[in-house]
Structures are given as structure tokens and as C-alpha cells.
From TrEMBL:
Keywords of this entry: 4Fe-4S, Iron, Iron-sulfur, Isoprene biosynthesis, Metal-binding, Oxidoreductase
Gene: ispG
Catalytic activity, EC: 1.17.7.3
Coiled coil residues, start to end: none
The UniProt record lists the keyword Metal-binding: yes
Organism: Streptomyces variegatus
Broad class of enzyme this protein falls into: oxidoreductase
Disordered: region residues: 1-32
Catalytic activity: (2E)-4-hydroxy-3-methylbut-2-enyl diphosphate + oxidized [flavodoxin] + H2O + 2 H(+) = 2-C-methyl-D-erythritol 2,4-cyclic diphosphate + reduced [flavodoxin]
The protein's name: 4-hydroxy-3-methylbut-2-en-1-yl diphosphate synthase (flavodoxin)
Binding of [4Fe-4S] cluster, residues: C274, C277, C309, E316
Cofactor annotation remark: Binds 1 [4Fe-4S] cluster.
Example of a GO biological process term: terpenoid biosynthetic process
Amino acid sequence: MPQPPPRPLAKRRPSRPLQVGSVGVGGDHPVSVQSMTTTRTSDINATLQQIAELTASGCQMVRVAVPTQDDADALSTIAEKAQIPVIADIHFQPKYVFAAIDAGCAAVRVNPGNIKQFDDRVKEIAAAASAAGTPIRIGVNAGSLDGRLLAKYGKATPEALVESALWECSLFEEYDFRDIKISVKHNDPVVMVNAYRLLAEQCDYPLHLGVTEAGPAFQGTIKSAVAFGALLSEGIGDTIRVSLSAPPAEEVKVGLQILESLGLRERGLEIVSCPSCGRAQVDVYKLADEVNAALSGFPAPLRVAVMGCVVNGPGEAREADLGVASGNGKGQIFVRGEVVKTVPESKIVETLIEEAMRIAEEMGID
Ligand code: SF4
């Protein structure tokens, strides 16, 4: 019944661990999921409300944008009241880096491509971050690559992204600051995957994976799943952010599902449902949706098979914790491989819920 322990597909790339507040990143820490708020950070209530929603959806760290002084002023309250570590996202203005560190943010993200005079301020930033124990993410983006590197490479190639990131790291390293994680994001998953592969070979900093500007929900989900899947299956990646033109809780849902699919995170509810075909003797889509809705939030890992007929139905249902194989207006209900009852089609969903509750009770879960 319990799922096997999470296991990576390839040996995890060794990386130096760091702490983003309560969440460990890199080293042996599990790959974490993060997202970013879409509210004005200066609107403290709206931002905290969205962070609460993200926390409820399983988000482990959250980034907030800091484009103005009002946003910087809001950071201390947000960092104090948020349930998960808050990361300040700083572009253009080094002064907000200091504000974020002072405000108690769990980490700061800087973009070397667009922080003017950043090189000159590195010493002070390293000193402030070091004193406060605040890690820094060097976040290189294809869309805002340093002009010198664009001139050198002609466009945002994997080599250009990696050179930008490692050059910025070297500035911090001069001051013995290594509490760093890195991202090298591109909107093209192939370029992005190659950039991270290259980066992984050249440093031992933990890596934050992201396909930037990945697009609307469907396209962004596919791009992220493909790119993260390739990298994570090679052991590359320590924290992930799925970028979607969709509410941030959707990003978290996709991120968690990617990790669960790779066995890098304990599975929650997993519905194994057939695609249906001409043999189906029940409306599989409707039944799968109903079972998914009814068991959503189930407090234990549970694999539930919903099958449309008796061809593959009994086999799949047997492999699951709980399952139904439909046929002739009835559903055979399986629990851990045994048929426990046969019920009319109208009773399938409620019977599965009853059996799920029984399983939870046996596991000592309320
Ligand atoms: Fe078709 Fe049955 Fe397979 Fe579902 S389980 S796809 S209905 S053959």
C-alpha cells in the first residue's frame, strides 16, 4: 500500500547545500517547489493572502517582486507573517538588495544582467548577506543578458548564460561569499537544458530550474515538464519554479506533479485512468473527474485506478491501492489487488470514497 520511497532516476549531482529560511536547498535536501506572487508587493494584505493560498497548494518558497521603495518597505511585514520563506526579487536597484536583507527575507534574487553598478556593490552585498546569513540567487535570464555577453555570443546561447552566471559568482567568491544558488533561464527548453547541463559541470552551486516565459498554462506545463524532466532525471536541479501565464497556484500544482512523476517526491493522490476507447462501458472521463474531485486532498499517498472496461481494468485496478474496473453497468471495486465488492455504476464513486476512508483509518490517518 505505501508507495516506495522517492528515488531519483540518476544519482543526484552533488551540490553545496544552503538554507532558504526553513527550506534546505542543494546537498541531500529534497528538490523543492517555489513560485512567485502576482500581487503588488506593497499591497501587504493581498500579497500575504496569495502567499497563504500558495502555501496551501504545497508551495515551499515564494518570491516577491521589489520594483519600488513601497515594495521594499513592505518586505519586513511580509517576511515576518508569511508561512513559507520569502525571497526578494531585485532588478535594476542594488539598494533594494540591502533593504531585503535588512527586512529578513530568506533569500535575495539578483539579475546580474540588469543591476547597474552591481559589480561595484558586490563587496557590500556579500558582507551584508554574509552577516545576515541570507543566500543569494544569481538569476540569469535570456531576455536580460549582460550586453557584453550578447555582443560576444550574438544571442543568449547556453555558453553565454553560463558565463554570465559564473562571472557573477566569481565576483562574490572574491569576498569569500558562496551562499549562492544559480538559475540560467531561457524560454526554449532545449537551450535551457543545455545551459543547465553546462553549468552543472562547471560548479557545485545548487541550481534553481526554470523555463522562463514558458507561456500559457498548457504550453508552459509541457515545456517545463519536458525540460525539468530531462534535467532532474540526470540528477540536475535542486529547486524548481514552473513559470506559467496562469495563477501561481497552478505553477505549484504542475511543479509538484513533475516531482511526483519522477519519484522525487512522495506521491499524493494519483489517479490512473484509462483514455477510454470503443470498448468502454462507462463514461471514463466523468468517472475519473468525479473520483479525482472526491478524493482530492486525501491525506495519504493513494493510487486509484479508474478503468473503463474489463480488458485492462482488472489488471490495473489490481496494481493500485484502490481501483474500479467497470462493465455491464457495474463496477468491480479492488482494494490492494483483491476484489472486495461489485457495485452498481451509480455507487462507484461513493464506494471508492468509503474504501479510501477505510484505508486511511487503517493507516491511522484522520
Ligand atoms: Fe479501452 Fe478498456 Fe483500455 Fe479503457 S481499459 S482504454 S475502455 S480497453
